[in-house]
Amino acid sequence: MQSEVMSFYNLKRTFDYVGYFETEYQTQLFKELKILIRSGRLIAISGIVGCGKTTTLQRLQSELATEKEIIISRSFVVDREKVNSNTLMTALFSDLTTDKDHKLPSQPEQRERKLASLIQKSRKPVALFVDEAHDLSPKTLVGLKKLIEMARFNNGTLSVVLAGHPKLKNDLRRPSLEEIGARTDVFSLEGIKGQQKQYIHWLLSQCIEEPHVSEDLIEDEAVEILAAKLVTPLQIEHYLGLAFEEAYKIGQKPVTVGIIEAVLTAGINDLEPRLIRQGYNTKVLANLLNIRTAEVRSFLQGQLPTSRTQDLREQLLKSGIPL
To answer: What Pfam families does its record include (predicted)?
Structure first.
């Protein structure tokens, strides 16, 4: 957002990276996660794109760091498709090692023994956090399970917290991944579902300069439309920023319903964007349905015969994908 726009609307900061909007559900979720982490578990948190998974993980890690009862480890690899058991073990070693530990052995057996020893010596539960975990391969998930068991057998406690799109949750429920899914505690992150209006007013209150209030900047009816059509913090921050920029061009204050309707993208809740928020792009859908990407595109664009469209929809529903 341009500085001129912010000045015109008395905003002291942009809408992104504002802070943590805590809901009752998230408060309870943190309590349950802390209990599980202390016991050495494989945990998965799933949520649609933009619902606040990364922010939630950061808040949880911050609380754990303050409490000082659990050692935190993180994976920083940017290319998530290249993350495997080796990179995650390296992350653990990097966060647990001391100067006298030198480096992680390259030989598999020695490497695992070294990590088990470090976890045991820490004398505290260790939690490894992995974001964008929907890209992890089944082989990597199996490796994480074995790593947790290895730590337990060596009198240590290791938990792994995975966060990813709903695709992660659906993958863990597949019969072919029963070895992992049956041993994983899965949570769905609801984000601000049902509290979109409250979130918008909270967001504005964090960004507006005193003594101004949100009603000075945007009509309540406009807020109602945003709350009805948008479902995630990311969407709200994006379209609210666009609305202020468009309103500034014509010197409109407060932002009106007409401006909101003008900036909301047509088809924002069509099938394709809804599936992408779940973690299912064209390539992933083609692999899941075992069809060509061209047919997937035709399906998403409503160009297939009715019977074929119904068949593909039923397959997606059986896979746990809400349509």
So the answer is: AAA_22 (PF13401)
